[in-house]
Q: What sequence folds into this?
């Protein structure tokens, strides 16, 4: 017999499902779906552990990290798991919360549960977390419910006068009972829907110092780009590098350029119809992205490369590129194409919506018109977005007002920061790009921890400049749990929902 304790993978789901069905027989056979396991593995792969016996998964423990003080001792299972979405998982939290542990009944004589608990303890210590907390079933309680209260039952289990298959095991593994929970797991008839709130304390916990908090302060640099004609590509790159260098000098984590900021390079094609000229410009995009990616690495800053046209399968898209300072490049294509983009350039919309994982947390990107559709940023928020970046290009103050007001609304309704950056100036020798209006800014939610007008900082309108702003992600965590209003939590998801269809 070969026994292995390791991280769970999605490929294990077939074995996992079989073991769950056996272990959950007394709970009505309810099991975790493959989609749910996939979500946990994406959020916190280190916390999902299993034991394989002869390469078959027969035992499993699932966990998330939370800031425990945000929930307290009176939470329910639904509350601590974010209604089973695990939106409560916080990589910067202080507590490893066990949401599941089981062993297939066929293998319960091998002390596999003890191995899982030991693996959890090692994980807790390696991540420098304060403790392991979980809600534990008391499956033997139904036999004594008529004569003993839950607390009396627990006291007798502690005194070894009664054996409970779950609680006795937990106590023997150095867990102690903090509290009795009522209505913790609806449907657990063996426990009469009571549970024990159990805890194991990490004696090696070192606490969190001020430097860890400062790591949650993110510095954003925005470029309010002056439209000007360039004699050649070298001159264009020189201007781009100037801003990257300047923002990097302030140790910024991100720099963002505006939408279609490279359209001054259309000038040599001005004799062509707009649609053909934009396609010629698209031929330069791969080279420009490669150059910007080299700046991201050499200047140690994540660059959101405004947006540029890209041609694929004879279709023209408006795309932005997230150039990580690690060397990786990711792409987002504008979803909603404006009537003018369709009329003059024949552009089409992209169809991929996702947040991006960066070394500064999860971010979302929307291009200009996209921010006027609230569904997109709500999907991002559900995926854990903390900062939304919006490169834009508007010719009139009317257009700018639409982008600004909608961006501010997105910050409030999604409890996130929103940064917008646009182009200014004139391009008299480029068709359909002759005038621009912009005032770049960083917007915040509206509550006491933020500016009263919900504007963190903004540029002077219609002037080339850069804006460097610090945003504190801790304030978003506090807002989410302790704000005057809790917009994301208070949604009536029993009545309506916004979901991704593709």
A:
């Amino acid at each position: 017999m070969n026994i292995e304790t390791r991280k769970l993978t999605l490929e294990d789901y077939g074995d996992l499902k079989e073991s769950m069905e056996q272990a959950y027989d007394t709970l009505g056979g309810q099991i975790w779906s493959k989609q749910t396991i996939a979500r946990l593995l994406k959020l916190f792969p280190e916390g999902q552990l299993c034991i394989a016996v002869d390469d078959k998964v027969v035992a499993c423990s699932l966990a998330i990290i939370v800031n425990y003080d945000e929930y307290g001792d009176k939470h329910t299972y639904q509350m601590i798991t974010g209604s089973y979405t695990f939106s409560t998982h916080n990589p910067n939290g202080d507590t490893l919360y066990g949401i599941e542990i089981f062993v297939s009944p066929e293998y319960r004589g091998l002390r596999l549960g003890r191995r899982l608990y030991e693996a959890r303890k090692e994980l807790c210590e390696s991540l420098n977390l304060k403790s392991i907390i979980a809600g534990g079933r008391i499956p033997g309680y139904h036999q004594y419910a008529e004569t003993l209260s839950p607390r009396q039952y627990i006291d007798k289990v502690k005194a070894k006068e009664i054996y409970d298959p779950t609680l006795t095991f937990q106590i023997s593994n150095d867990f102690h009972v903090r509290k009795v929970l009522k209505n913790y797991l609806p449907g657990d008839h063996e426990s009469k829907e009571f549970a024990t709130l159990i805890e194991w304390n990490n004696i090696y916990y070192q606490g969190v110092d001020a430097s860890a908090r400062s790591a949650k302060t993110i510095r954003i640099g925005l470029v309010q780009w002056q439209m000007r004609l360039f004699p050649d590509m070298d001159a264009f790159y020189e201007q781009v590098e100037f801003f990257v260098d300047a923002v990097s000098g302030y140790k910024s984590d991100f720099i963002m350029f505006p939408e279609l900021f490279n359209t001054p390079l259309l000038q040599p094609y001005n004799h062509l119809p707009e649609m053909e000229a934009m396609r010629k410009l698209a031929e330069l995009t791969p080279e420009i992205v490669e150059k910007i990616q080299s700046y991201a690495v050499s200047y140690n800053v994540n660059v959101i490369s405004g947006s540029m046209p890209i041609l694929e399968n004879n279709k023209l898209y408006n795309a932005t590129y997230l150039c990580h300072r690690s060397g990786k490049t990711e792409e987002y294509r504008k979803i909603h194409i404006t009537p003018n983009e369709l009329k003059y350039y024949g552009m089409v919309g992209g169809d991929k919506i996702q947040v991006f994982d960066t070394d500064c947390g999860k971010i979302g990107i929307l291009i200009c018109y996209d921010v006027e559709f609230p569904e997109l940023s709500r999907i991002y928020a559900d995926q854990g977005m903390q900062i939304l970046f919006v490169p834009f290009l508007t010719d009139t103050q009317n257009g700018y007002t639409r982008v600004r007001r909608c961006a501010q609304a997105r910050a409030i309704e999604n409890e996130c920061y929103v940064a917008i950056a646009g182009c200014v100036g004139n391009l008299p020798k480029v068709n359909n790009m002759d005038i621009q209006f912009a005032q770049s800014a960083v917007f915040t939610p509206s509550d006491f921890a933020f500016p009263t007008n919900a504007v963190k900082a903004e540029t002077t309108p219609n002037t080339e400049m850069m804006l460097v702003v610090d945003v504190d992600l801790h304030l978003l965590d506090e807002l989410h749990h302790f704000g005057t209003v809790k917009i994301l939590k208070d949604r009536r998801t029993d009545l309506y929902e916004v979901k991704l269809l593709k």
Summary: The radius of gyration is 27 Å.
